[in-house]
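In this supplementary section we document a worked example of the pipeline. Step one takes a protein sequence of length 411 as its only input; no multiple sequence alignment statistics are reported here. Step two produces a three-dimensional model, which step three serialises into structure tokens for compact storage. The input and output of this example are shown verbatim.
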Amino acid sequence: MALGDGIRRNVATVSAQERTLLRDAFVAIDAAPYVFSDGVSFWDKQEQVHKDAHLAGQDVHVGPAFLPWHRVICDKLEALLRQFDARLSLHYWDWTTDPRASPDGQGGTVNLMDPNFMGDDGSAGINRVAADGGGDIGPPFQNFESSEDDEIGNGHTHAWRNVVAGPPVFGPTSMQSDHSIITAGDALPTVSQYHAMDTKLKIAHAYAHSDYIQGSIGHPHFSFHDPFVFLLHSNVDRLWATWQRAPGRSWRVDPNQTYGIDGSAPSILADLEPWAGGTHLVPWAPPENQQTSITSKSASVVAPPIYDTDTIGLVATTSDKWSQVAQILFGITNDGSGVVLGPSGPQPVGPWGPLVANASHLAPAHQDALLGIAINELASMANTTELREQGLRAGTRMLTGAVKQLQKLHG
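The serialised model returned by step three reads:
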């Protein structure tokens, strides 16, 4: 496991060094110099973003845009953390485990909720509000305020938790297994599969927030005051990404197919706020003007990040060949760097590289031709006949289409 390889992992299994870096990054982005032009820190902006979505009428919790909207906020927070240390990734908490005794992958356990990482679970009773139980998360996040007392007068001026004793409880309305979420709709018509998975995932998500961690995270309007919420939502996104990458279901990464019957829902078709600039929240408004019109169907939203539980099913033959093919794929699809999984572990690749140094400036037909070739190369390295044949068909279709476009262009 290499720090800086871009893969999001079970945070209990990464090195203590990496957890410390992640903790320090969360603390750092709550103060100067990590502030926007309105004087709001990168961290405090996350709660503004979450609340702003509600004010903008974004159906970010119960509607079908729940998963894509939260993917965007996680991706953007990860980018902010990387301003502190470019090697960081937004790792996830496996919510089927007790965060105070989460398996470390080496036969031991890790307490994710102590001053060395994510603060207290509430049992220490720091600044306790007696009526609510629990307590502030305390060090290292003792300065992470909450707007709860100002808004609803519950006495909580700082982020707090009241985690239930013991591990999560599994049941129809509580925690769900990864397998049950990912396969929830597999027996249904393809147009109904996203809705079934999304419904099952939301049950576990709601339980983790409101019935298990509790405290600030238990209140949807205040949950993003607690940094642990991002480890929780990275896990939400991991499960969606795993569903998307299920073998034999490549349509799940197609923006026009993945949402099925929910694909025409207003929240799926609408610009995602505040990033589209419609709510005028800084920095997606003057003077930064960082607004981008993205919807749940935008390619950058549908494309899943890479997690340690991904099963890509590819085997590289040589590192040079792997790197070159990956540069073509990641350069065209993301116009940037990425990570692929080779036989010796994750392989970070740069944006394009010398093989196709100016490919980002090529006409779409030329890019499609390169992409078709790259897909065929990757397909030839697949470790199952099914994946190999599917990849070859997809690459050939893209390459054939590109050739036809070029013939029209050049007569």
